[in-house]
Amino acid sequence: MPLFKLKTRNPVPVATGATAANGTKAANQMPVGTRANKNGVVGTAQHGDNIVEIDDVYKSFIMGKEAVPALRGVSINVKRGEFLCLMGPSGSGKTTLLNIIGGLDTPSRGHVMVDGEQVVSLNEEKLARLRLKKMGFVFQSFNLLSSFTALENVQVPMVLLGNRNPKHAEELLRLVGLGDRMTHYPSELSGGQQQRVAIARALANDPPLLIGDEMTGDLDTQTSFEVMDLLVKLNKDNGTSIVFVTHDPRMSKFASRVIQMRDGKLESEEQSAVHNP
Ligand SMILES: Nc1ncnc2c1ncn2[C@@H]1O[C@H](COP(=O)(O)OP(=O)(O)OP(=O)(O)O)[C@@H](O)[C@H]1O
Ligand SMILES: [Mg+2]
User: Fold this and answer.
1) Which residues of the chain have pLDDT under 50?
2) Is ligand 1 within 6 A of the CB of residue 69?
């Protein structure tokens, strides 16, 4: 496991699509379940009510001589502690929007702010740190490292930030219900268990924001509900803000707000009566 022999004092400015956040010592010493919540501030600087502010964002991909418009003037604020779902037909720009929020792609035009930082203006190193500290990503295909155990996978974002903390990784695996699977390799875990490891890894540095793109797309119905229940718990107990994309109306019901996208624009939005009584 050469990764775990890395000297971790100097954070490695590496982009990773599978990570997380607030690597302060204080945060790592806090028990799982105590970070910023809807009503207050715990262990991290706060920058206003919104964790994400997107202002008039456009994105076009150049294909040969043609520009393919993916986003056409999207503005959206995500409140701290929100549980937001993006839906819409294939090609409507959902993944492009998530990637732009996550700094995995840059907009052609417009402003993107995450936890008080203008994502577009950051250099590569600062962007990598922002991703590691403030965001956790969960994808449809888990993206775990196959030669690392569950426990090692969860520690990857910590190592990248110079904050390796096996105890915290263990806590996170217990939080996602995998206390008895820590030394298993991904191939020894079910799809749902692998996705739980991916969620634990996304939370490794205690990010205020979790971003999920079709997280339950490869899971059966029962397992999908279990994963969504876990996210509800994280949102409620930890105050983690969540933005996720799904095609499945049964999963969107877990969100506090659902936004429909179409042709690169926001089409409509709906608040959930369940979450906003
Ligand atoms: N890297 C790329 N190069 C060229 N065009 C792209 C690229 N990524 C996305 N697009 C185009 O941008 C548009 C939006 O794509 P995007 O992946 O954001 O859609 P989506 O809503 O996530 O769709 P799906 O539900 O199928 O995942 C599509 O027309 C797509 O073909
Ligand atoms: Mg997509």
Assistant:
1) 1-2, 5-45, 277
2) no
